[in-house]
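Record type: ASSEMBLY
Status: queued
Input:
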Amino acid sequence: MSYIPISQEDRQEMLALLGLNSVEELFSSIPEENRLRNLLNLPSAKSEPELLSYFEDRSKKNTFDQYVSFLGGGAYDHFIPAVVDYLSSRGEFVSPYTPYQPEVSQGTLQVIFEYQTLICQLTGLEIANASLYDGATGAAEAVLMANRVKDKKRILVASTVNPQYRQVIYTYGKNLGLEIVELPYNQSGQVEIRGLQAALNEGTAVLLCQSPNYFGVIEDIKALAEIVHERGAMLTVAISEPLSLGLLEAPGKLGADIVTGEGQSFGLPLSYGGPYLGFMACKKEFVRQLPGRIVGQTVDAEGRRGFVLTLSTREQHIRREKATSNICTNEGHCALRATIYLETLGRKGLRKMAWLNAQKAAYACEQLTSIPGVRARFGGPVFNEFVLEFPRSWEEINRKLKDRGILGGLGLKEFPGLDQCALITVTEKHSREKIDLYVRALQEVLR
Amino acid sequence: MYPENFYYSQDHEWLKVEGEEAVLGITDFAQKQLGDIIYVDLPVVGKTVEAHQTLTTVESVKSVSDVYSPVAGEVIEVNQQLIQTPELINRDPHGEGWILKLRLKDKSELNNLMRAADYEKYLEGLEH
Amino acid sequence: MINVIREPLIFEISSPGKTAFKVPVLDVPEKKELLAGLPLRADIEGFPEVSETEITRHFTRLSQTNYCVDLGIYPLGSCTMKYNPKINEKVASLPGFTQAHPLAPEELVQGNLELMKTLEKLLLEITGMDAITLQPAAGAHGELTGMMLIRAYHQAQGNPRKYVLIPDSAHGTNPSSAHLCGYTVKEIKSNERGTVSVDDLAREMNEEVAALMLTNPNTLGVFESDICQIAELVHSKGGFLYMDGANLNALAGITRPGDLKVDVMHLNLHKTFSTPHGGGGPGSGPVAVKKILEPFLPVPVIEEIGGTYYLNYDRPQTIGRVRSFYGQFLVALKALAYILSLGPEGIKEMAETAVLNSNYIRKNLEGLYELKYDTPTLHECVFSDKYQREYGVTNLDISKRLLDYGLHPPTMSFPLIVHGALMIEPTETESRRDLDLFIEAMKAIAREAKENPDLLRTAPHITYVRRLDEVQAARNPILRWEK
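Status: finished
Output:
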């Protein structure tokens, strides 16, 4: 198959115009000895039907769909309304570049403007960017942003933040001399206040916490904000399950200075981890330190409303090494999907969907903890994920659950003392039947 | 065009000296080069600089320019008007568009700067 | 053409009580008191309420105001805006891929791991490198990852070094990525050919230089012919040669960066390998390295033993994680589908035709627009507005006028070494007819610049919106809708 619409005849005519005898002459600037003499060693070209069966065969080698899954931990299986796939697959959305020519990109630009508005409404903050790569890099960017705003190098990170986010913060931070300090959690599964107070000092730029955190527990953002602000530091809240914002008070209203997170829950399929959607919002005063693209409203030569990429002087193509971030291409199409998803569910739908998640998780937790020997590990309130402690090692239980067709949750052995625990996630896609199936399987395993 | 009583630098800053203090801005030439100014990143009062160090940055839609201090000194006042109306620099670069006031560390450094006639000659040189 | 309806913001067409989605009924006993005592929100203030019809019309109307590759040539230089094959979208939407949880046990996602490993192998063959990670989310993320690998290597030798050398023609992400990795950037001036000269480099290269970042072909479309001597010079002082692979479309099947002594490079799957740009992402920026840097690759690394694939996290010298999970998986599938559908002949024909198309445009516009550097070019060429400036017309005006012709303009004002640049990259997926449409429009505009410059200065005239006031947007930022 070829996507090259230049025929042999075209080729000859074009070469003649260029005064060349062969295509090779086009490459005369590449030293002869550096040019390949043979074709690359690649599989021979496949036709469209062959290509499709090649991928279908590999797709069938994936057998996860034979299991009922209770996996979450940063990637969530939510229902995606049909309009999201349908509208987002329009060529006019799929195949343009970044909107550098606003006059012929108003569709993309207006969508991002709506997206920024939705993110502000959800987070309770004043401004949002056009997207970042994912939740983990969003958390790292937020830490760097706080470092710039405060010009301080001490970064406090709750150990209840998704381990992958913490790893990325460390990968980014270590080359820049940031001092990253992890804070302990308490019996509720929340940031331990005394540990926080002890760790805060005059050199502290920011506390980064997650809510609901990696244990599914909702943090007391208001209390954390008061404590860190008193010491002149900022509060950044990372969110890996943003559907929770349908129900919980917006972190911005509770004192968070920056809110960042993973937008995958909003209309993006699980996709084995990507592409996902990093979102970020902050208070207006920090706008010049916000990384990534931003769309703003303006007027055209006839006074009509229009949208443009704006405040570009923060970005790498203008400020080069002094830019707020090196990000260029972001996740525009993922932001489009999130926008369609959020506008489809709307003001009432998102709240109802969040309520459904919380209720089902509560039901599942109650049923599972009614089994002797199984208990909720943490006392804090949860949204749609929770940590259970089992009478034996999770590894063994997990194996036996899998034999019964259940992917029962994520082990937590990277957390000291939690090797008998697992993180269990329940969304609106888990019918009561599926939850009850899990309960019965666990009863059998523990019998 | 260029006030007689100002001092000028090769980087297109001007200084208007008043005793031990000096008002600083960018020249009409500089503002024209930059185009519509959208933001001035004003320094904090109390900041001290050596000659040729960056004092602040001035931004247009698609460029960022450093403003250097032609002499050593301490920032004692900034033009708060520029926060809301950075376009003052475009409108009146040698007057209302002033950026900040410095307390001079060493007045003899002024001898290294150009006066209006020299600066105009310098600009002519740039245009060729 | 039908009258275009000016589509309001969704918030402006919202009215209470409407919804486009019916949330399923709760099938477990409801606990009314759940989460009581927590700060809950009574409402999502300002959130839209619209029906499904309105959603569909809203996005369909908005989509129609976009220009896109499906509509015509998109000759943005260094962006490689090629056609996005539709079968690639189809394979990437198979439920076996889209519904896979990234933390599912490895034995249940063998198909995914096999496909990623296959793409890795094919990309290594194309680049001539030794090892690769698919994780970086975009080109700039790949640059950052590559610089981190270099830093980790130097650190392991006891000194991370201080400087990274970057030519003045480089994309802004290069200095920005180096800086984000803790390096100080030193700029190398381009010579009169628009390339890096070995002598200039020799003056800057020393034992405190961690790496040279080189785009090849560079942003002028010029192949850095001295790349092997450059690499030897950099290596002689213990530095690494990083190649920005944004322009790999000119080289695939013709020469291999690995054979040109490049140590580390990123690829842009959304450029060379046809995955759609989506109006600004998702991209994908795999990073390929030589053996010496392999131990430092981000975790996890995909490995295979006897036909079984697994994720290896046990890598003591790794730089760590650079993002969540394993990369832009669906994007990787599309790139793999592209390579498999082209095959070795197709990949070569791709680069050949991309270079042919670019030279065809160059030849046809030479004389009408200034070529600051007349060095031979590969997949893109950079003109300037010098001739048109005589009539008070700039590259911006030329670009805006192209919109009136129903075409997308080239990249403007980049690279920085060409004042008033118009950087044109047609790619191989443009037909003669589409190339000629562009050429004829550019010729007509060159005439108009002389005869009626005002027509250009006030362009575009027939687009959905006219020229937009970017100064106002930046001076008084309105970044969200408010009631």
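Annotation: The radius of gyration of chain C is 25 Å.
Annotation: Chain C has 15 helices and twelve strands.
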